[in-house]
What does this fold into?
Amino acid sequence: MKDFSFRATLGLNYITNSITAYQNNQYGDAAPTTPGGTNGGRSTKTSEQQLSLTGNEVLTWKKSFGYHNIRALAGHENYKFKYTFLSANSSGFLFPGQTDLDNGTAPFGPASSRVDNRRIESYFGNINYDYNQKYLLSASYRTDGSSRFADSVRWGNFYSVGAGWRISQEKFLSNVSWLNELKLRASYGEQGNEDIGLFYQYRNYYLANGNGSYTSPTREANPDLLWEKNATTNIAIDFTILKRRLSGTIEWFNRDPPTCYLIFLTLLLWVLAETSLRISVR
It folds into this structure.
């Protein structure tokens, strides 16, 4: 379709890890209780697998009407994570160097296994507009659903807006020879955080001890726990002067919560054709 483009990507990350921890059956901590006995040696086998899949589908539309330029996109993202863990052990090895568990006579501790799952589903959109690259506007919106939260609070909604003005392109500055570029920009955006660990906090967890009994939860489930939201405000002036020999940015930044006010001043001075000096003050 004219003015439209579509892109789909799939990313896969797979990590596997197998570990054997062996203590010999003759000397040291795992030596037999009596010299020449058959209860010496310990071997532990551990296996871990971690799989993550990320799929993206993005539809983009670009159009120009004279000096008006518009770019819009809509997309979907799906993230899946799975972690599996298995560990078992054995002791009582008759021959040295035999690490496989079948060579032992009995386990010295309970076997252990677990599976952790995590899913995130996202839908997002963005639109950018500019008039002759002089006046610039942008807006975006996304909604994310995380398996870490209960159904009633699973989805978080976040947005951002921004604007820019290339003041140096205005006629009233066209005769200022020492000014090459001057741009004023401002933005406000929200960002979500769901990093609360792999446990589902809206459920009660009982700890299995490997012998058929369980330990009661030490902390009650919290079905009201939801996305953390951070809001960021940014206002800046970018400038380039003196035949592009000196460029810099004066920037004010605020993040809430926690409240954080920062003022940045960055200067880039071109001394020679291939030499630069960067000065940054905060």
Remarks:
- Residues 271-282 have pLDDT under 50 and may be disordered.
- The two ends are 48 Å apart (CA to CA).
- The chain is about 0% helix and 60% strand.
- Residues 4 and 61 are 5 Å apart (CA to CA).
